[in-house]
Design a protein that fits this description.
The structure holds two protein chains of two kinds. Helices cover 2% and strands 37% of the residues of chain A. Chain A is mostly beta strands. Chain A is globular. By secondary structure, chain B is mainly alpha-helical. Classes of the chains: A mainly beta, B mainly alpha.
């Protein structure tokens, strides 16, 4: 997997949640399409996004379900309208956007959350924000701005998106191994 | 009954508004200079803390002061530079904020920014580079904050004679909070206060090397002389101090960074071009050939400059509540 992602900056061990700020930082800005890099097979679904409306509280999470391996263009709410399960450590201002979705993991492994913006993200289990195990930038010119990896066991999870500038954000959750 | 409660509430508000600020400083450390027109108060620091973490100070609500100044990094960033809210590339490395109240110069290359009030304006409204992207939008900041009833209360408490929500008062509150970021609890500090077990023998060897080789610039309690020096070869993209003074001799001069918490405030130098403390040491004049054992001792000493309490102190963290309500 790492070989396949060789153009992509990744740090893969002991990563505190706060490290994802680094994942949001672009390296030298690529010139597109000159510097374009291929999207790895694991993230191939990125190019076909379906619309999805985000949840704004715990009660509405049941209607906002994302299957791993399916990319969506998630419609977000105004930040003040969102009641997060866990308060994000970078909450976003009142003029930003945020939201939540639920997803289920059938088999244990490392899962990558790829998003098309620099928003803050949390993967939440039992009202606890999980530590990530890696973070990085997407391939140049792919539209994937930020990737954060989590080691997950089978079960249900909540993905929280906070402090996004736009009212929509592309998202893909993909299993790496 | 309701009237009594309201009166009690008013009394509490008044108490908080007039509560004097008390510096908590170790023996021998004098309180910093505070501008006469922006005296410290608990209410002002509390407001500044909330504002420091509020991304409504940026164009699209995605970027707060704390986005770049992360407490667990002693309020540095961890990136070489940090891009702006519109995607503009960052220009210089984000410095830590420990003990900024005592610093006579505040940025890598501008000696004219000598107060935190002046400096706080730069990331919010600056254009070279654009960081938080609010140039010309200062009134919009006030408008956003004024929509929040708790902010209205907090501004009244912080500025009881004015109570105005505007950018000037935002900046004053931010500066007050930044002055409260006091860090004197590293093993090095404990050692200087007489705890002879606080630094290991290796660290003490490094301290001796540091005194000989580094302390002419990294001097005093801040481990910085606040001066501007040429350490790296000048680059074509950043003239450093010359940008302000226009003096050719200032080309490539940058402010001596404080080494407090240096272990966790990398990467290093004005452009964040050096990832490790060891490499940063080697890039200094006459240090490229430093013996491996000396370098190890020196970096061990520098590790002893880390104040872990500072990185976890709840007084400086994202506030969990305001006006008695959870945020």
């Amino acid at each position: 997997m790492m070989k396949m992602l060789s153009p992509v900056l990744l740090a893969m061990s002991g990563v505190p949640a706060a490290a994802q700020n680094m994942a949001a930082m672009p390296q030298a800005a690529p010139v597109c399409p000159r510097d374009a890099e291929p999207i790895p097979a694991t993230l191939a679904a990125w190019s076909d996004k379906k619309p999805l409306m985000s949840a704004t509280d715990e009660a509405s999470l049941g209607k906002t379900v994302l299957a791993p391996g399916v990319a969506v263009d998630l419609a977000l709410a105004d930040t003040p309208a969102v009641t997060y399960i866990v308060r994000p450590s970078h909450p976003g201002g009142s003029v930003s956007h945020g939201g939540m979705l639920s997803f289920t993991v059938d088999s244990a492994g490392t899962y990558r959350v790829a998003i098309g913006a620099g928003a803050w993200l949390d993967v939440v289990k039992d009202k606890i924000s999980l530590e990530s195990v890696g973070h990085g930038h997407g391939p140049n010119c792919s539209g994937i701005r930020k990737m954060v990896d989590f080691a997950l066991q089978p079960g249900g999870y909540v993905l929280q998106i906070a402090g996004n500038g736009d009212a929509h954000i592309p998202i893909l959750i993909a299993k790496l191994n | 009954m309701l009237g009594r409660l309201m009166l009690a509430g008013a009394a509490l508000t008044l108490t908080a508004a007039t509560e004097p600020w008390r510096w908590t400083l170790p023996t021998g450390v004098q309180a910093p200079h505070v501008p006469a027109d922006n005296l410290m108060s608990a209410a002002k620091v509390e407001l500044g803390r909330r504002l420091f973490y509020d991304a409504d100070l940026s164009a699209d609500g995605t970027m707060a002061c704390a986005t770049c100044h992360e407490q667990h990094r002693a309020f540095a960033d961890g990136n070489a530079t940090h891009g702006g809210v519109h995607g503009d590339p960052g220009r210089r490395n984000v410095p830590g904020l420990a003990n900024v109240a005592w610093m006579r110069t505040l940025t890598w290359g501008n000696p004219r920014l000598t107060s935190l009030e002046l400096q706080a304006v730069v990331p919010v409204t600056g254009k070279t580079p654009v960081e938080m992207g609010m140039a010309g939008q200062e009134a919009e900041i006030a408008r956003r904050l004024a929509r929040d009833a708790c902010y209205r209360t907090m501004f009244t408490r912080a500025f009881p004679d004015e109570g105005t929500i505007d950018f000037a008062h935002v900046v004053r509150a931010l500066a007050a909070f930044e002055r409260s970021l006091v860090s004197f609890d590293s093993p090095y500090d404990a050692w200087t206060r007489g705890d002879r077990t606080a630094l290991s023998p290796d660290a003490l060897k490094g301290a001796a090397l540091f005194r000989r080789s580094c302390s002419s610039c990294h001097s005093g309690p801040l481990l910085s002389d606040g001066g501007f020096h040429k350490i790296l070869p000048p680059s074509a993209t950043d003239p450093g101090l010359r940008e302000i003074t226009s003096r050719p001799s200032d080309l490539g001069r940058f402010r001596t960074p404080s080494l407090r918490n240096v272990e966790i405030t990398g990467p290093y130098f004005h452009d964040g071009s050096t990832k490790t403390m060891a490499d940063a040491v080697r890039r200094h004049p006459r240090m490229s050939a430093i013996a491996t054992s000396d370098l190890a001792a020196l970096t061990t000493f520098m590790t002893g400059l880390t104040d872990r309490k500072f990185t976890r102190d709840e007084r400086f963290s994202l506030p969990g509540e305001a006006c008695g309500k959870r945020l």
